[in-house]
Design goal:
The complex is a heterotetramer, with two copies of chain A (about 325 residues) and two copies of chain B (about 350 residues).
Chain A lengths: L1 E4 H15 L3 E5 L15 H5 L4 E3 L4 H13 L3 E6 L9 H8 L2 H4 L9 E6 L14 H5 L5 E3 L4 H11 L6 E6 L6 E4 L12 E4 L4 E5 L3 H13 L5 E5 L2 E3 L3 H11 L2 E8 L4 H12 L9 E5 L8 H6 L4 H11 L7
Helix pairs in contact in A: 1-7, 3-4, 8-12
Chain B lengths: L3 H13 L3 H23 L15 H8 L7 E3 L5 H6 L4 H8 L36 H12 L5 E6 L6 H12 L4 E7 L2 E2 L2 E2 L9 H7 L3 E6 L3 H16 L4 E6 L17 H8 L3 H11 L5 H24 L23 H9 L3
Parallel strand pairs in B: 1-2, 2-3, 3-7, 6-7
Antiparallel strand pairs in B: 4-5
Helix pairs in contact in B: 2-3, 2-11, 2-12, 3-9, 5-12
The chains are: A alpha/beta (about 325), B alpha/beta (about 350).
Bound molecules: thiamine diphosphate (2 copies) and magnesium ion (2 copies).
């Protein structure tokens, strides 16, 4: 067991994968000499050299496209998109090429690439650098979608993503890089595609992923002090989606909140809410509540930014309302 | 399907014999194949009408493909039948794919615009203008690392000169000295738009030069010229200097099967079709005495039989089974996506 | 009343708008001399000339970006994207620019542009020319989203879209262009943002839009012959979304199916299902059923393509199952 | 905030007086403003740390902006404070926006990377590299149609030379003879990457030439040279020939406030900072006798006071009220998006 940051866990995953398999290479803006905009690849350039850490021009569509071609040619590229906000200009290469190549070509070839990127609020970075756009990916068949919330998941899920036969979009959260945790990287990896139940309680189920896990856990602790016990589930990957775990707890508890930082409408929260209602209909005591990003762009103003997405306090309030706690505002 | 002696020629000529007769033969095969694609459509046996014939562009396909080797890779655009065939594709499996049949290269899922074959290094045709271009940058990275001198070639139309991703890709290839070539088949049109109405500036290869690529423009009339220019560019790329080649030709027919080209005049078409690489090569062969009308007629007839057979093959081929719909979204061994029907049954059964 | 095609109704809307307001201009690939890939603008170039119908290079990102700039500069551009499948390469200009400019700039300026495009299956056009990608748009705050299903809506909704102060993504369906209807264009326009109830029945509610309206109506007719009466609601626009109409009928009937051609997961169907469950929870006799596109790419094979999205027969079967009709397969 | 006599100069100089003193004054204002932005950050009063200072690039901003007229429009990149200020922005409202305050140009929603002002034709800064470029094509269409000689200028960094959308936009501008100018401020770096590590080929303006644009590269040391080159390019554009201008300068400091530029050597910085357009202009003014150290010191001091005031203004300004969060997603009069909280209450109340 050693204390480690989310950032360093990601780096270690890349390092281990690169040491183990020399087809693994990282390609993106500032990933080499600079060490990555958020420092994830710092030091790897010195270790593995310019052929394994390829600094690119500021050409997101071609970065993703080049990774597709590399993946079809026997390499295992880890393409980096500095902000998930830039995914818009790559959605053709991602959605029309990476996601569909195996299918369109009748199964002849796969595109085993990982697209690493980061999203979310927390840095007053404004409307074009603070988004949570995972729903675009989740809506695109053929793309895996992984969003680690913890340090140990950062490590294990990235290692596992690098063994997938299909393209994986791997979205980190910018507010988590400095988070620390005691981890034992040698411990067995969690099962790929399985959600993790962080906390079990009988009053409500909170289904979430990425940074919102921590807000949900904080809210759950606060609720516990008022006698309300929440189950908190971290989905970890949205494709594959471990609905069995969700179902088991929802059917047991009957009250559910889904928490996502992405904007509510037609987002990941919608899919989760729809699925829970549809599949666990007879077990629900109340409708599923969506606690998601507001249907607005993110402001640079600190206060506005903070309130544009769920906070721990907000989750707590919503949770208490959901279980009918009198004291809820 | 074809007489043994001819098959033997078919297999050997494109690799070993680079004389005009061999090049003619391949160009004729491309042209005849495309004519049969038109026929498949007329017979209602094609999957849809989005069929883009490369008639008029045979010299680009054959001139460049005749220089490709094992290990080389390439991507094509929506008008890529000719390139793939020139590179050695099985015309039956191509036609079956165009017909959306299980026996096709992609089991009927891809169709005319999404044919691929990893065996021949065909990383895929593309229905997105410019969509297949950046893949050669990644393939080039892989080739460079392997160090065996393989190149990766992106084929595209003049319309892709208007897609930003081309410039991003050229810049990367040049920056990293990749064994990559960008081949623009300038057939003068993108749908109903003439190149001058859509692409500004000097000769196309000047754009390549401005991005630091070894660049040329070549007239597509004489396949030998195309091959010579392609040779210079490909040799450069094998040596680590990426290149750009524009081949000037003319799109003989409409954009796709439904397009009757009302936007251009008969005179324009007549003038354009004068740049006929197949006719030109035939004439040159006869005039130089290298071949004769009779020999070429026999060759053409043999090719006609070979290509006729592709239609029979396709008509006889199977539709893909419905359950294959869920296959190959993800790798073998991964769970297939649940069908909407199965899901509904599950939900209404109360799980 | 005159018989008219969907295609001609769209053309008439453009013609009327252009005649009325000379800032309206059409910009896109093949929109001028050629008359549009699906013929919608045929003849307008001759009527309005090259300054009003601007043929562009094949540069989708810049087409959308140019329309944004034109809209900010006093023009009313109608940008055309030949296939909605190409929206991927424009999502930056659409989602980071058009959608957010009013907000980011504190309300100083709007982007009154219309992005016309078409989507859907029906032509064996393969995986990159047959998609229904409206969910990406619906998930992007700031963008209106209109998807006409009928000839008269094609006319009126396009006219209304051209009067909106905010960017509108207007998605036609490729299988509808030749559909005919008797229309009176002089009749009062429907209220903007209101759904249309095409049929009222007490056994189930089908909520749909675009081409699937016709499949739903056909299914409803077939069910009616078996004594099952469906209410069929055409949403017409997904932003604004007329949930009041949906709610009223759902609460009355209690059995609901949402039908969308887009892939199911995290799609429009998810938003509709979630919203109906959440807001009409106590009124539902059964969970809402999503009848959507399969979570797969579209094949070029005719049979595979057809079965990748809802058909009338499929809707009927699902409807009959939902109401518990014995004879359902 | 500033003495009346100086304010008068401030308002008149940039338009009427185009001599070096006026240009110097504006460049100094830009530099001092940027220094104050740095201070705002250090004081913890900026909204975030994504603040990109244009110190070293003042000649590009001032040289070009000094030629802009009423009716002209422009877009900028993430390093656009200087351009906007040179064009006549109110530094208080700029700083307040950078502080995320209600009194800012965009009511605290946009911030440093999203400042805009329709009054001055500023169609917006952009946090997407290349994101603001195509808008000038649309603005150019509008200007051309109006026929009043207005131009639209896209300002961007050398990093945007790597974005495909630039080439798409240049091609359109050239094709349609739009009154549009593309100004690349080449400060040698895109974050930690030197231009040669990211952009291949010959001089940047050769890319403009290959796309049919009137194109030049100019050294940014002497603002008079920049102004002269910009004059040629802008005049061309007013006459219907779009242009491209690359201004060579050096990014004096890190990419954004947190970046200490570990990727470059002190020698590189020293060499780079030798290209100081503000210092150069000052020296030229004194050496030519056009001004004196004493006069310039007084001018600088006055500018320092003007810019000091922007911080006080910003610190005193209000945070935007929370409910403004839902405003301006859509036009006034349209319903605001329902908040998640209101929705939950509605749902749990059983509607
Ligand atoms: C990104 C994109 N935009 C538009 C289209 C529609 N389209 C298909 S082919 C074509 C013309 C392409 O012209 P060119 O590149 O010259 O190829 P050609 O058809 O002449 O071989 C267009 C506009 C498309 N398929 N992809
Ligand atoms: C599309 C996009 N890619 C990457 C970034 C991250 N980024 C912000 S500024 C920058 C460097 C830009 O360099 P340049 O264009 O030369 O402008 P400079 O910062 O030097 O003024 C990068 C990579 C971004 N904001 N947008
Ligand atoms: Mg062409
Ligand atoms: Mg720079």
């Amino acid at each position: 067991m050693a204390e480690m940051t989310y950032r360093d866990a990601l780096k270690q995953a890349l390092r281990d994968a690169m040491a183990e398999d020399d087809t693994v290479m990282v390609i993106g803006e500032e990933v080499g000499r600079y060490g990555g905009a958020y420092g994830v690849t710092k030091g790897l350039y010195e270790e593995f050299g310019p052929d394994r850490l390829i600094d690119t021009p500021i050409s997101e569509p071609a970065i993703v496209g080049a990774a597709v071609g590399a993946a079809m040619s026997g390499l295992r590229p880890v393409a980096e998109l500095m902000y998930v906000d830039f995914i818009g200009m790559t959605m053709d290469q991602l959605g029309n090429q990476a996601a569909k190549i195996r299918y369109m070509f009748g199964g002849q070839v796969g595109v085993p690439m990982v697209l690493r990127t980061q999203g979310g609020t927390g840095r007053s970075a404004g409307a074009q650098h603070s988004q949570s756009l995972e729903a675009y990916v989740m809506h695109t068949p053929g793309l895996r979608l992984v969003m680690p919330a913890t340090v140990s998941d950062a490590y294990h899920l990235l290692r596992q993503s690098l063994r997938q036969p299909d393209p994986v979009v791997f979205i980190e959260h910018k507010a988590l890089y400095t988070m620390k945790e005691d981890v034992d990287l040698a411990a067995p990896a969690p099962e790929w595609g399985k959600a993790r139940v962080h906390r079990t309680g009988d009053d409500l189920v909170i289904v979430t992923y990425s940074r919102q896990l921590h807000h949900a856990l904080a809210a759950a602790e606060a609720m516990a002090r008022k006698g309300v016990e929440a189950t908190v589930i971290d989905l970890r990957s949205l494709n594959p989606l471990d609905f069995d775990t969700v179902r088991a707890h929802v059917e047991r508890v009957g009250r559910v909140m889904v928490v996502s930082e992405g904007v509510m409408t037609a987002g990941v929260g919608a899919e989760l809410s729809a699925r829970i209602h549809e599949e666990c209909f007879d077990f629900l005591a109340e409708p599923v509540i969506r606690v998601c990003g507001e249907d607005i762009p993110i402001s640079v103003s600190v206060e506005l930014e903070k309130n544009s997405v769920p906070t721990a306090a907000f989750i707590q309030t919503a949770g208490e309302k959901l279980v009918g706690l009198r004291s809820a505002a | 399907m074809t007489a043994p002696i001819d098959t033997a020629v078919a297999e050997k000529v494109p690799r070993s014999n680079t004389g005009l007769l061999a090049l003619y033969r391949q160009m004729r095969r491309v042209r005849t194949f495309e004519e049969r694609v038109g026929e498949l459509f007329v017979r209602g046996q094609s999957a849809g009408s989005m069929l883009h014939l490369s008639i008029g562009e045979e010299s680009a396909a054959v001139g460049v493909a005749s220089l490709m080797r094992d290990g080389d890779t390439f991507t094509t655009h929506h008008r890529g039948h000719g390139i793939f065939l020139a590179r050695g594709a099985d015309p039956n499996r191509m036609m079956a794919e165009i017909g959306g049949k299980e026996e096709g290269y992609c089991r009927g899922k891809g169709g005319s615009m999404h044919i691929a074959d990893m065996g021949l290094g065909h990383l895929g045709a593309n229905a997105i203008v410019g969509g297949g271009i950046p893949a050669v940058v990644g393939a080039g990275l892989a080739s460079k690392r392997e160090g065996k001198g393989a190149v990766s070639i992106a084929f595209f139309g003049d319309g892709a000169m208007q897609q930003g991703i081309l410039y991003e890709s050229m810049n990367m290839a040049a920056l990293w000295d990749l064994p990559v070539i960008f081949v623009c088949i300038n057939n003068q049109y993108g749908m109903g738009t003439r190149i001058e109405q859509a692409t500004k500036g000097r000769a196309l290869h000047e754009r390549g030069l401005a991005f630091g690529l070894n660049s040329e423009t070549v007239d597509g009339l004489d396949v030998r010229d195309v091959r010579a220019a392609a040779g210079r560019i490909i040799d450069g790329a094998r040596g680590g200097t990426p290149g750009f080649l524009a081949v000037e030709c003319y799109r003989f027919f409409g954009h796709a099967r439904m397009d009757k080209s009302p936007y251009r005049t008969p005179e324009d078409e007549e003038r354009g079709r004068a740049k006929d690489p197949v006719g030109f090569a035939r004439k040159a062969l006869v005039e130089s005495g290298e071949s004769s009308e009779a020999v070429l007629d026999a060759l053409d007839a043999e090719i006609a039989r070979e290509m006729d057979a592709t239609i029979d093959f396709t008509v006889a081929a199977r539709e893909p089974a419905l359950q294959t719909m869920f296959r190959d979204v993800y790798a073998p061994g991964e769970p297939e996506p649940e069908s909407v029907a199965a899901r509904i049954d599950r939900i209404l059964a109360g799980d």
